[in-house]
Design a protein that fits this description.
The chain is built from nine helices and no strands. The N terminus is likely disordered. 69% of the residues lie in helices and 0% in strands.
């Protein structure tokens, strides 16, 4: 059911509104744990990790037992890195919250209002802070002074844990599509080709979605992501990864 408000022209637009007023799909907000950049980045990372295993398979010499060990290694590696990513997400989040609390404490306690406004402007996106006048920043400063002490507490929230778990799942599950062909196709060479095709397709889709989110050329970004993935896999393998 659409949200409407008789007193709010933004929420109660008529169907014949100007097309320029329509919100682009890339800007439409959805309640998701991770933004598109985070989700796609974690998937690409998982794909690269899995490909460093599958691309080192010796087609001429690989037996089923060796192949099974290789796949177990790939899945185990992504499990480990997914866990590391999730833990680091929590830790970096706490670090960011701590830094934010330092700034907030300074703004609340300092008698130098001008310096406080500078710090407020620095934590805002540059494009936003560039259009704010002194009175706007002062209004923000005064509102920050009224925040309750409970807002200064730093803790890991349920949302943080959900996002960390989402990161873990993305890194781990990205291994599955690449591993499936080796499970159901007995011919190692054919399985490797199908696996690589799936990986290339997923990288292209990842690049396409990033371009859609950022407003770039989708075809270019899709093929660029494939090329970038191939180069990163080659470098990882060359370095013994």
């Amino acid at each position: 059911m659409p949200v409407t408000d008789k007193n709010n022209p933004v929420l109660n637009r008529s169907t014949d509104s100007n097309e320029d007023d329509q919100v682009p799909a890339a800007l439409q907000k959805e309640r998701r744990l991770l933004n598109p950049v985070d989700r796609i980045s974690e998937i690409i990372f998982g794909l690269i990790m899995a490909l460093t295993f599958t691309c080192t398979i010796s087609i001429a010499q690989a037996g089923r037992a060796e192949l099974k060990d290789m796949l177990i290694g790939a899945i185990g590696c992504n499990l480990a890195w997914g866990l590391v990513d999730a833990v680091m997400f929590i830790l970096t989040g706490l670090a960011e919250k701590g830094h934010g609390r330092i700034i907030l404490n300074f703004v609340r306690k300092t008698s130098n209002a001008e310096k406080a406004r500078e710090y407020i402007a620095e934590v805002l996106p540059p494009v936003v802070s560039s259009v704010l006048e002194t009175e706007n920043l002062e209004g923000i400063r005064k509102k920050l002074l009224k925040l309750p002490e409970s807002s200064l507490q730093i803790k890991v929230t349920a949302q943080d844990l959900k996002m960390a778990f989402g990161i873990f799942l993305l890194v781990f599950l990205s291994t599955i599509p690449i591993a499936i062909p080796f499970k159901f196709i007995n011919n190692v060479q054919r399985a490797l080709r199908v696996s690589n095709f799936i990986a290339i397709t997923l990288m292209f889709i990842g690049g396409w979605l990033l371009a859609r989110y950022a407003g770039y050329n989708k075809w270019f970004m899709g093929f660029f992501m494939i090329l970038l993935g191939v180069v990163l896999v080659a470098i990882t393998i060359a370095l013994g990864g």
